[in-house]
Write the structure tokens for this entry.
Amino acid sequence: MDLKLNNLRVIVTAGASGIGLAVAATFAAEGARVYVCDVDKDALARMGKTHPQIITGECDVADRDAVSAMFGDAIAKLGGLDCLVNNAGIAGPTGPVYEIEPADWDRCLQVCLTGQFNCTRLAVEHLRKSDNASIINLSSAAGKFGFPNRSPYSSAKWGVVGFTKSISMELGEFGIRCNAILPGPVDGARIRRVIEEKAQLAGKTFEEFKMGWLAHASIKELIDPQQLADMMVFLASPVARTISGQAISIDGDMQTLV
């Protein structure tokens, strides 16, 4: 299927590794012009070598001045904007709410939720000029289930769903589609750290906790980042022109996270 993404202008936050790298590389493979920002200088340097066609810049999405500078650079180099992928996020602290440090709570919400606001508010004026405009926000299965001992992360990801639905209603008049992706446990270093931490709290081994987690899904496997990238590329295409305001789960049909 030709998704008609040639020369689509895309910004992917936290796009130098993990899910973001899969997303950026998939857009580029479809002919899109891609700008990736990240806080990880080493990952950005590696991307410059492995994907020289992708434009890169350093940015912490929780820093409004840095986001403003990044958008100025991205728009100048892309020549406009058709799609914003708000992928940036952090795992946040693990532990019961009464033991969480306020600074750790604040940082988690600043990156996972407020960072999406910081980017979206600057993207709209440019997306309004596109005839195929979209915003794709990364939420999580933790954005539809309770997630004990991960309350900052879960709160932020629930917030992403509400944010997405609200802006889809606000921006529809400009032809801007807004959707959220809710992955289950995504294979990679980050989820393995989370499993290790939660397994330790539960007094279980890594493998015991992982399999117990997956027991609550119909399809018992970790999610491949490429699945998320493929869905995002589809949502950014004209083929998906009437899909907006959706919270799309890619989680093997999880029923709970506990």
